[in-house]
């Protein structure tokens, strides 16, 4: 076999600058690329460095039409790719890099060897998108949450063999102090000889400064201490002394706490520091190049205050001005300090607060009367568990490994039951599978569940039921939805899954509002059950498609209650949202003639809207957009819709005002990145996704049911 027979037409891709050069590459040259990559990966510590190596390599390999090459070369590094994506954090990096990472995730989702990882990758993509959205808000000058309160933060630049692109992160330190007998002992986690060689002198210097400072305030302190210094991110080997400020303040803070001083010192929330501290308490400089790199790192973090050595301030401010050309509204304050006293005297950087005398006294009592306190605690704990053992009232339902776990308020497990649901406990969809309610007002809660595993049922025909159990896992009642209907297109069978909406109190009676979705066909229905007996109550409303979610609300003036429903209509092949009063649940909802429910009246609705399918959905050959859940939002109902047939993430949020007269559209980043990429490549027509022009275009396609016909949303407002 000669080289021509195994040569490949590929492209060398500069993915950071979006350029490519057509090349011919033999399999031997490709093998050299592989070896170079594996060698480079040995020295890359962070997910960002790893991705800068893997992404262009993947882009190169994925061009090959030979499936054997694709699978062999990509499978080898698959686990490294997924681990790097899982660990990726958009902070401390320009947002443009994170957008490239999101595009990369979408690329590998279409590769068959990642099929089993699709759910995980989609979730990670959503998490990265959410973090990126927060970072963009911060860069736009909006207020976002700062890092954990009073954490001792300092920037770390990752050493890379490729100096053209540097990454870093904010490291934090946790310090714990106890007394020692013979000498000061410092334990560093993670530990290695190299760490101790480089920073041990700074640790000793910072410790002496902090100890002497505290000794001036508290004369009686131990001669020796054991100090544990824990680097929270445990990213690798740290070198240099630029964490001197963080160490010194951290030692002071923990010594004052340990000796129960009258006042405490803490760093201000959201503050980052860099710079060494010498034996006289002077802050030592770094270098112009390194301070510029650290300013950029902090600039793209969620911190708003950066403490640096005074001698480095000119270089730092210069770099800050350059960065603000692209992000002029980013609020980052740089404070140059000369020495430790200068830092401790600045109230915008450090908090010095008196301890509450009562709390301080309590600490002293705990220190001196430890045995007595321990006895009191044991009595309290025993009393708590004694009471807990007699608490059998269901309070919580969790889902783990496809098993419902019913617990008391204190977390005691009452019983478990297998299910076939894949929803997580904290998902909006999970709430439609279970309810905790006292059905007969006797003070004891019962548990309603759906989606039981068919193998656990005595009768397989009961699959899809809603069942009511007491705290002993004893069945109180059960109900299966078995209605038959007719339409021009088909006559659905009587196999339905039931989902729970909410509990309604009607004249002292408790009712369950639920919806049933046909397991094999298009029909779904809204109906009610008597909560005490499980018997069906009058009134059923039909939707010609799959109902996804529903919530109950009431009129802000009259107090009249209604339900808002999000579903997919099979006739229109798009998401619909409708509202109906609880006393008007009857008939069928508007649809196409083929899917109309026969021999039934049209439902009397408060409103119904049809959510348009986007050009991106059509480009990806999606049949219909997907309902993703409805919830309460400030001054509006949030209606989430998925517009990407290749994932299950929310893409667009339609905000319907409480008076049903206003709809605002919020484009989520995961959809924006995908659609804008398609626009830039010429697959879709402008405008770009986040533009007002695009949201106006979507809004103009929303249709509203009005007096027996569909009109544009904007035609009658």
Identify the notable features of this structure and list them briefly.
717 residues; alpha+beta; six-stranded antiparallel β-sheet; 35 strands; disordered N terminus
Shape: globular
Mean pLDDT: 84
Widest sheet, order of strands: 25-26-27-29-34-35
As a percent range, the share of helical residues equals 25-40%
SSE layout:
Elements: E1 8-14, E2 19-25, H1 27-41, H2 47-61, H3 67-75, H4 78-87, H5 95-109, H6 118-139, E3 152-157, E4 168-179, E5 185-189, H7 193-217, E6 225-231, H8 244-258, E7 263-267, E8 271-273, E9 276-277, E10 283-284, H9 288-299, E11 305-309, H10 313-326, E12 333-337, H11 340-344, E13 350-354, H12 357-368, H13 370-389, E14 396-399, E15 403-407, E16 413-418, E17 434-437, E18 446-450, E19 466-469, E20 475-479, E21 496-506, E22 509-518, E23 524-530, E24 536-543, E25 545-554, E26 561-569, E27 574-581, E28 587-588, E29 607-610, H14 615-619, E30 626-633, E31 636-642, E32 652-657, E33 663-667, H15 669-680, H16 692-700, E34 703-706, E35 709-712
Parallel strand pairs: 5-6, 8-11, 11-12, 24-28
Antiparallel strand pairs: 1-2, 3-4, 4-6, 7-13, 9-10, 14-15, 15-16, 17-18, 18-19, 19-20, 21-22, 22-23, 23-24, 25-26, 26-27, 27-29, 29-34, 30-31, 31-32, 32-33, 34-35
Describe this structure in words.
- By secondary structure, this protein is of the alpha+beta class.
- Helix content is 30%, strand content 29%.
- The protein contains 16 helices and 35 strands.
- The strands form ten sheets. The protein has a six-stranded antiparallel beta sheet with strand order 25-26-27-29-34-35, with no helix packed on it.
- A hairpin with a 5-residue loop joins strand 23 (524-530) and strand 24.
- Helix 1 packs antiparallel against helix 2 (47-61), helix 5 (95-109) packs antiparallel against helix 6 and helix 9 (288-299) packs across helix 10 (313-326).
- The longest helix has 25 residues, at 193-217.
- The radius of gyration is 31 Å and the shape is globular.
- The N and C termini lie far apart (73 Å).
- Residues 1-7 have low confidence and may be disordered.
């Amino acid at each position: 076999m000669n080289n021509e027979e195994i040569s490949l037409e590929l492209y060398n891709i500069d993915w950071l600058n979006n350029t490519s050069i057509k090349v011919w590459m033999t399999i031997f040259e490709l093998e050299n690329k592989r070896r170079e990559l594996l060698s480079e990966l040995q020295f890359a510590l962070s997910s960002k460095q790893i991705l800068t190596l893997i992404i262009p390599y993947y882009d190169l390999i994925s061009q090959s039409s030979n499936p054997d090459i694709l699978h062999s070369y990509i499978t080898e590094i698959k686990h490294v790719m997924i681990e790097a994506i899982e660990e990726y954090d958009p902070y401390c990096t320009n947002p443009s890099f994170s957008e490239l990472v999101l595009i990369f995730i979408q690329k590998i989702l279409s590769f068959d060897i990642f099929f089993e990882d699709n759910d995980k990758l989609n979730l990670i993509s959503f998490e990265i998108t959410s973090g990126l959205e927060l970072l963009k808000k911060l860069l736009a000058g909006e207020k976002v949450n700062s890092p954990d309160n009073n954490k001792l933060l300092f920037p770390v630049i990752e050493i890379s063999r490729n100096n053209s692109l540097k990454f870093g992160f904010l490291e934090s330190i946790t310090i714990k102090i106890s007394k020692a007998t013979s000498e000061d002992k410092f334990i560093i986690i993670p530990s290695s000889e190299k760490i101790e060689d480089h920073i041990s002198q700074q640790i000793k210097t910072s410790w002496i400064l902090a100890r002497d400072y505290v000794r001036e305030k508290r004369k009686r302190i131990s001669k020796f201490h054991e100090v544990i210094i824990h680097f929270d991110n445990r990213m690798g080997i740290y070198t240099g002394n630029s964490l001197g400020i963080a160490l010194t303040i951290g030692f002071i803070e923990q010594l004052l706490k340990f000796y129960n001083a009258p006042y405490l010192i803490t760093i201000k929330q959201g503050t980052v520091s860099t710079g060494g501290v010498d034996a006289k308490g002077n802050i030592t400089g770094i270098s112009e190049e390194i301070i510029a790199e650290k300013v950029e790192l902090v600039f793209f973090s969620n911190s708003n205050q950066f403490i640096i050595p005074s001698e480095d301030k000119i270089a730092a401010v210069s770099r800050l001005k350059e960065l603000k050309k692209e992000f002029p509204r980013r609020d980052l304050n740089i404070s140059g300090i000369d020495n430790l006293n200068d830092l401790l005297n600045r109230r915008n950087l450090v908090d010095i607060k008196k301890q509450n005398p009562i709390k301080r006294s309590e600490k002293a009592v705990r220190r001196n009367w430890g045995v007595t306190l321990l006895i009191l605690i044991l009595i309290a704990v025993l009393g708590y568990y004694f009471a807990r053992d007699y608490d059998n009232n269901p309070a919580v339902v969790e889902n783990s490994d496809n098993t419902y776990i019913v617990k008391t308020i204190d977390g005691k497990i009452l019983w478990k039951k297998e299910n076939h649901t894949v929803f997580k406990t904290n998902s909006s969809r999970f709430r439609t599978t279970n309810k905790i309610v006292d059905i007969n007002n006797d003070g004891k809660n019962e548990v309603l569940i759906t989606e039981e595993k068919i193998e656990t049922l005595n009768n397989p025909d009961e699959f899809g039921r809603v069942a009511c159990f007491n705290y002993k896992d004893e069945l109180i009642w059960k109900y299966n939805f078995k209605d038959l209907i007719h339409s021009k297109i088909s006559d659905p069978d009587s196999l339905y899954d039931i989902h729970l909406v909410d509990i309604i109190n009607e004249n002292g009676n408790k009712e369950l509002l639920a919806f049933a979705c046909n397991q094999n066909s298009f029909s779904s229905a809204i109906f009610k059950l008597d909560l005490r007996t499980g018997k069906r109550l009058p009134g059923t409303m039909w939707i010609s498609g799959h109902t996804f979610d529903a919530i109950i609300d009431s009129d802000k003036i009259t107090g009249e209650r209604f339900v808002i429903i999000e579903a997919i209509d099979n006739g229109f092949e798009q998401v619909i949202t409708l509202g109906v009063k609880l006393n008007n649940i009857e008939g069928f909802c508007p649809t196409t003639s083929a899917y109309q429910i026969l021999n039934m009246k049209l439902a009397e609705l408060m409103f119904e809207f049809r959510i348009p399918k986007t050009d991106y959905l059509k480009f990806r050959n999606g049949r219909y957009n997907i309902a993703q859940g409805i919830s309460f939002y400030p001054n509006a109902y949030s209606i989430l819709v998925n517009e990407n047939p290749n994932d299950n993430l929310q893409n667009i949020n339609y905000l319907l005002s409480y008076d049903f007269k206003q709809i605002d559209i919020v484009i989520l980043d995961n959809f924006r990145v995908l659609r804008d990429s398609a626009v830039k490549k010429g697959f879709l027509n402008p405008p770009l996704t986040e533009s007002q022009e695009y949201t106006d275009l979507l809004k103009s396609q929303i249709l509203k049911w009005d007096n027996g016909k569909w009109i544009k949303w904007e035609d009658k407002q």
